[in-house]
Fold:
Amino acid sequence: MPCCVRRPLRLFPHARALRNTKIRHLSTPRAPGEPIDPLHYAELERINRSRRQGVLIWAGGATAAAAYLFFWPDEPKAAPTKTNAPLSPSYFTPATISASETTGPNSKLIQLTFPPHLLKSSADDSFEFRPIWSIYVKDDAIQVERAYTPLKGIDQDGRMEFWIKRYPDGEVGRWLHSKNVGDPIEIRGPVPTWSWKENEWDEVVMISGGTGITPFYQLLHHVFTKEPSESSPKTRFTLLHSSRAPDQLPPSTMLETLKNYSRSQKDRFSLRLFVDSRQSESGSSHIDLFLTEGRIGKAEIQHALDPKTSSGWGKLFGSKPSEPEKTEKKVMFLVCGPDQMISAVAGPMGRNLRQGDVGGILGEMGYKPEQVWKF
Structure:
């Protein structure tokens, strides 16, 4: 037990710095499209509760107890690093950058490879790898981590591919963009962000902006590629994606895959792409894709819920829209992107990383919390 305040602060500077770093990370706004790790909310609550208790005891005059609770550093809770260990959300383990390709002004496709012999079981069959899940990547230089969603999950060779943008205030994104093929990276996961359930919904409408498309790409890849025979034909999917300009759209390989899904699964999947402006459009990579100039609004969301016009582009090419469905459908809206877009479409996230009330366009349309999930 310390006899005064100064001694533990002098003896344990690294532990105190670690706690301050954790608080900074847990309180920092999420990057666009970054999923929520429930462990972060619990840890932030624990730290705040510990601090409140320390302040109350100090006010009560128990000086020695206050010094212990408030100033004595907690046992470090940062996730440790383990080598030669399976993937786990509770600790970091090494992976390697196996490919890196520039795809836009500030974006890259980055492939990480994890030792395949360390996979707990078949990644295709394991429940923990069912969509939608992410991994956390740690910038070991400043001890900050961010979550990223593998586009196609993880394959039998331990490979995961990510579409990562470099944002001015994104420490980990900038750090990843500076890395080269062969560099080691520490990761932890998988961390589930939303649970896909077969036969649960008649319609799943996905609304994304920027790199917020990545969790939806993972879901569609799973449904249409990994397990097409098991996938229920009951559920229809619509993806409404928005980017600032054509050169900021997802990479052509992603767009081509989505376009192929819309052709081969035309009764089950519809795709619409939106850009704020077409002024920077150049090249031919997006010429054969129908781009709508403008933002995703109420009319576009209502159109997505009309199965006849949304699947065949009937409205765009002159056919009459069908009457609304008489029977009530089970609809789920998934929204992922920059905070401003999420707020406009579904209302802001709640405090302490909670979902919050449904607001924005979906709130005006009368949808309830169980019908909306914000990433």
